[in-house]
Design brief:
elongated; alpha/beta; disordered N terminus; Rossmann fold; 10 helices
């Protein structure tokens, strides 16, 4: 997800990112895969460690997954039919008109939107679809959620990038140049132990920035506070991340009716 002039806050421990970031529900990909007219090729942009790409592989003949972070790509799951390339979403190594689905999972806020939309216009096949989605603050039992919200807002609050605002808005603060389809409600749900929750918090970009600036791990001071409200150290607690999804057909007007070929 890095590019010239953009600090890469995710490659510091790509294996932890792959281990602790929450996994998307299968129902999300079933819904997304039904949007394009064909299922030949999907392009997963800013793929990170491929959490979306490997799920898309079950629905498309070929998935090309791009990220500018080589450490992230090295930590990616190797699923059949998924090919990883070091590249940015705004300038993909894909021929024009070849892609049936363009997806961006939990990374659209890092992209240069005008350049990205130009690239989508170039690579989108007739009947192609664009799907972007993400998740904001986690939901948990009140005592746990209160500590994490204070950590988010106060401890690492000054270290969130300006792009984080788009996540907090659920990606509603901008227009998409296409006709959108309303998505059903989706959520990530998991039962996490305390080490897993702490591992997830350490993947936050603001935690990476805090480490970069101050040279200290802010999660270390949060750990005993969470442990005090956690109860049994071996306990697993329900954690939920509601998803926000924006998607639609990009070039439906260019899809020829059956029996006809495009001019």
């Amino acid at each position: 997800m890095s590019r010239a002039g953009f600090p890469d806050l995710f490659s510091r421990d790509a294996s932890a990112y792959a281990q602790f970031r929450p996994r998307y529900p299968a129902a999300l990909f079933e819904w997304i895969a039904a949007l394009p007219a064909r299922r030949r090729m999907a392009l997963d942009c800013a793929t990170g460690n491929g959490q979306a790409a490997d799920m898309l592989a079950g629905h498309f003949a070929l998935v090309l997954a791009l990220d500018a972070s080589r450490p992230q790509l090295r930590a990616a799951t190797r699923a059949t039919g998924v090919y990883y390339l070091a590249a940015v979403a705004e300038s993909s190594p894909v021929r024009s008109g070849a892609v049936d689905l363009i997806s961006v999972a939990q990374a659209f806020h890092w992209l240069d939107r005008p350049r990205f939309f130009e690239e989508v216009e170039r690579i989108a096949a007739p009947g192609a679809a664009l799907a972007i989605w993400g998740y904001g603050r986690l939901q948990a039992e009140p005592a746990i959620a209160a500590l994490i919200n204070r950590f988010h807002d106060e401890t690492v609050g000054p270290y969130w990038s300006a792009q984080r605002r788009l996540v907090e808005e659920g990606y509603r603060g901008f227009a998409l140049p296409m006709e959108e389809v309303a998505a059903p409600p989706f959520a990530i749900e998991a039962q996490l132990g305390l080490p897993e929750l702490l591992g997830y918090l350490r993947t936050w970009s603001a935690v990476g920035k805090y480490l970069q600036v101050l040279g200290q791990d802010p999660v270390e001071s949060l750990e005993p506070q969470l442990a005090a409200v956690w109860g049994d150290p071996a306990a697993r607690h329900p954690i939920r991340w509601p998803l926000f999804v924006r998607a639609g057909r990009w070039r439906s007007e260019r899809l020829s009716p059956p029996g006809r070929t495009s001019p």
